[in-house]
Design a protein that fits this description.
Number of helices: 10
Order of helices and strands: EHEHHEEHEEEEEEEEEEHEHHEHHH
């Protein structure tokens, strides 16, 4: 049998080496130039060890401060994305997770955003304008993820426990066998790799990363990874849409006639920022242009944009159970204000100039999650457990950030679309998070 056959992932050959480790979180300029721009992973040793969440998030603290929040859990510590999920109050999960196979995987509720802090490497240049989601991963250890990649950049910070990661550069995509397109993952058994069925996984070069409590790991856009966790294991990852232009000027200020770097704090609470579905949509359009056949490289046609928008809006409507009005008018408006050369295609530079709020109006809030509406989930949970609204905190079930100007008029008149003074929003920090 070939090397690694029917053995755990990574047994086919030694790792190329360990992911680079730093003991100090770099400035955003260095982080972007050396790692993000080049797509190179980086382990921040002790990067979150002085953060509020690392210092305070014991089971007792979480139960007292956030215990009534309703959270989503998976059953089974070896990830199986074909299985369903369930909902439980955080205090109930905390009372039993040590003796169960429950694994909490939930978007970080807004009420916990003050406690979770971003690293300084994200605090200027445009990273915070592209925040996509923050997710909590919580178990008693022994979890094993599928082999997958993410269409976003990612920093995972570990509050307790340890993790081992098998990582593969995205340039080896043809060797990884991502055979489940919905979710971008492989159905390979990570404990027993069938090298005959997945021959690339018997040859692919890979890198390893080992995380201890207090460490953070940067996983670049589209890098493949598989994660194993040990001990009481609590981690938060922050996802952001890859930035198309690093705005270095945001990191500098003039002092005594000189242009110097702005002083940055070690951390900044997530509550200071908002998530940006508009930038997610922009990245989707840029990807569409990049990956189009040569004959279609001229850009995005109105028909293609309409199809993409309809798909996004339909997904959102399935979650919210509410129709989204005005999106077709927004698609039309995008071409009116952004198709500068009037060639009926949106080219890369034109896509970069589309106002973020207009992208949200056309393509929705990029809603993700269960098929049920979040309000329905809360109602069902309260009914099944005999709880009153006062006993149930649905803060974790409330919607994603909605960007300013993305609401629809009840008469299907989208007022922001009537204005010719739409401007590109550099920083959504002022956006209200719902």
């Amino acid at each position: 049998h070939p090397a690694g056959h029917l053995q755990p992932l990574g047994s086919h050959r030694p790792a190329e080496g360990d992911v680079e480790v730093v003991d100090e979180v770099p400035h955003p300029v260095e982080f972007y130039e050396r790692y993000v721009k080049t797509g190179k992973p980086l382990l921040f040793r002790g990067g979150t060890s002085n953060s509020r969440a690392f210092q305070y998030w014991s089971d007792a603290y979480l139960a007292e401060k956030f215990g009534s929040l309703v959270m989503m859990t998976e059953h089974g510590k070896k990830e199986d994305r074909t299985k369903g999920t369930s909902y439980v109050q955080l205090k109930t999960f905390l009372s039993r997770y040590n003796g169960s196979d429950e694994y909490m995987v939930e978007t970080l509720p807004p009420k916990m955003h003050d406690d979770f802090q971003l690293l300084r490497c994200l605090l200027c240049g445009g990273f915070t304008s592209n925040l996509r989601d923050a997710v909590m991963w919580f178990s008693s250890g022994g979890t094993k993820s599928v082999l997958h990649n993410d269409g976003v950049d990612n920093i995972n910070c570990l509050m307790s426990g340890s993790k081992d990661l098998f990582m593969v550069d995205k340039k080896y995509a043809d060797m990884v066998h991502i055979d489940v397109a919905q979710g971008s993952y492989s159905s390979v058994d990570v404990d027993s790799v069938d090298v005959h069925k997945y021959p690339g996984l018997g040859k692919v070069p890979w890198w390893k990363a080992h995380m201890e409590a207090g460490d953070c790991l940067y996983i670049p856009y589209k890098w493949y990874h598989q994660v194993r966790s040990y001990g009481r294991n609590l981690a938060i990852n922050i996802w952001w849409v890859p930035i198309t232009r690093f705005n270095e000027s945001m990191c500098f200020e003039e002092k005594d006639g000189e242009n110097i770097r702005k002083p940055l704090s070690q951390y900044a609470s997530l509550s200071l920022y908002g998530f940006s579905p508009g930038e997610y949509h922009r990245h989707t359009l840029l990807d569409e242009v990049l990956n189009a056949p040569d004959a279609d490289k001229q850009g995005i046609s109105r028909r293609t944009l309409t199809e993409l928008a309809e798909e996004m809006v339909s997904s959102e409507e399935e979650v919210t159970n509410e129709p989204r009005k005005g999106w077709k008018k927004a698609v039309k408006k995008i071409f009116e204000v952004s198709d500068v050369n009037n060639d009926r295609y949106l080219e890369r530079d034109e896509i970069l100039q589309i106002p973020s709020s207009l992208l949200v109006a056309a393509m929705g809030n990029a809603a993700e999650g269960p098929d049920q509406s979040k309000a329905e989930v809360a109602d069902n949970y309260a009914r099944e457990h005999g709880l009153t609204p006062d006993e149930l905190d649905t803060g974790s079930l409330e919607g994603d950030t909605q960007e300013e100007g993305s609401e629809d008029n009840p008469e299907d008149e989208f007022n922001p679309l009537e204005s010719d003074e739409l401007q590109f929003e550099e920083n959504p920090a002022s956006h209200t998070e719902l």
